Amino acid sequence: MEFIKEEIEDMSYPEPSRMKHEDTEEQIDQMEEKERRHKLNDVKKLCDFKTQETEAKKLHTCSQCGKSFTQKHHLNTHMRIHTGEKPYTCTQCGKSFTRKQDLIRHMRIHTGEKPYTCTRCGKSFTRKQYLNTHMSIHTGEKPYTCTRCGKSFTQKQKLNTHMRIHTGEKPYTCTQCGKSFIQKKDLNTHMRIHTGEKPYTCTQCGKRFTRAPALSVHLLIHSGEKPFKCDHCGKDFISSSHLKRHLIVHSGEKPHVCSLCGKSFSWLDSFKQHQKTHDGVRDHVCSLCGKSFSWLKSFKRHQKTHTGVRDHVCSLCGKSFSWLKSFKDHQKTHTGVRDYVCCDCGKSFTTSSNLKQHQRTHTGEKPYTCTQCGKSFTLKQDLIRHMRIHTGEKPYTCTQCGKSFTQASTLSVHLLRHSGEKPFKCDHCGKDFISSSHLKKHLIVHSGERPHVCSLCGKSFSRLSSFKLHQKTHTQE
Q1: Would strands 320-321 and 312-313 be described as parallel, antiparallel, or unpaired?
Q2: Which of 80, 106, 436, 468 ranks highest by number of CB atoms within 10 Å?
Q3: What is the pLDDT of residues 307-325, one digit of tens each?
Q4: Which DSSP string do the residues of 11-65 spell out, in sequence order?
Q5: Beta pairing, strands 172-173 & 340-341
Q6: Phi, psi at residue 4, to the nearest 5°?
Q7: DSSP characters for 182-247?
Q8: Strands 312-313 vs 124-125: parallel, antiparallel or unpaired
Q9: pLDDT tens digit string along 426-445?
Q10: Angstrom distance (rounded) from CA 263 to CA 285
Q11: DSSP assignments along 311-329, one per residue
């Protein structure tokens, strides 16, 4: 406003005695100048008034953080941040809020009210900002762009979250195990591992889930719906993520390569699991026996060995399973479906893992080697079982007599001794056995088969154990 003041001070006005009634050119100029001077003076007064008014309005200042407000009730609302007061409580679920408008918005969850409707597709929303975000789907507008990789986003908040991928920032940390996350919602989901909370329940079977998407996929199991179809082989899937994983089978792509050993993987989760073998990270610890696991799914599978829960039951034979995958693989034994075929010998299998294991009989590959004695194995589980010879570990304990075993299958057979059950019957003589392996050994008695032949003396044996025992007679000589 200084230039206005200077301009006003420099103005000189004609004396009234010298002014004539005739409107000369000079007089007109003077009158116009006088009018202009009044206008400038009014502007100055108005600006000064507005400045004073704004300053006068901000009379309510927070004593704790110094923030000022134009109205007292705004200050009162702000103070609740410091005091933690939440005076507005939902009568239906008990959740409390600092502001009344937050409670009003929350109530729409219970009432189902969605007052903001998209004029393009008719979809409704509980909040106006959700509608504004939704509108970008129709307009295709993504105004927020990442300067690092060029990816665009509809919301600034989503861009900020995305930037953490580049910076490595993980601001949300679990207080129980120290694991950090990029987003708060990921931390909230993770916390359910510790609390055991499963807020999403299937109305058909009562099974509970930690995440809503997991429940949505589960419901498709009941409906039998598989909306995602593979264009290559026609196989159907219940989710787009399952289809994406399957497509890699056709492409043969393995984009995830370990920088330490060069091994490549088709799926990111398999790659991450492999990396833990180098790091030695086992962040999932069983509270009952102290055993630790690299992967959550392995940890959950282990927990069922303590609980004995087998919630997947075959409707045809009554056999129950702890895991859905094992249940589905079992169902194929009834349907006869074997969609994984060996290209070397034509033998078919119910699962891809069984096919891979079988193919090692052709290649002679034994990728799992014992670090203590150098013995190699075709299957990882065989190496794990073998290692118990060195460690003396017997993790499977009979609850009736306390006897421990290195393998779960051995414990299962042992439990039949307590129950007296012998579920495997010989069709030739009617004799009962507690395991299928015992029945197989017995059947050789009826067939007369002696497949194990000594190369030194030509003697043949029906059982491998008898053959090995015989071989020792030659070595002792």
Answers
A1: antiparallel
A2: 106
A3: 777 778 888 888 888 777 7
A4: -----GGG--SS--HHHHHHHHHHHHHHHHHHHHHHHHHHHHHHHHH--EE-TTT
A5: unpaired
A6: -65, -45
A7: SSHHHHHHHHHHHH----EE-TTT--EESSHHHHHHHHHHHHT---EE-TTT--EESSHHHHHHHH
A8: unpaired
A9: 998 988 888 888 888 888 88
A10: 27
A11: -EE-TTT--EESSHHHHHH
Token pair 């004593």 is found at 63
How many Cα atoms occupy the beta-carbon half-sphere of 389 within 13 Å? 9
131, 116 Cβ separation under 8 angstroms: yes
The token pair at 441 is 């050994």
Judge contact between 137 and 121, C-beta under 8 A.
Answer: no
First to last CA, the chain: 119
Sequential DSSP letters for 387-448: HHHHH----EE-TTT--EESSHHHHHHHHHHHHT---EE-TTT--EESSHHHHHHHHHHHH-
Residues 6+ apart with CB under 8 A from 166: 146, 148, 149
Distance CA 106, CA 97 (A): 9
- Per the confidence metrics, is the pTM higher than 0.70? no
Cα dihedral 171/175/177/181 (nearest 10): -20
476 token code pair: 């002792």
Q: Which of 110-119, 269-278, 301-310 has the highest mean pLDDT?
A: 110-119
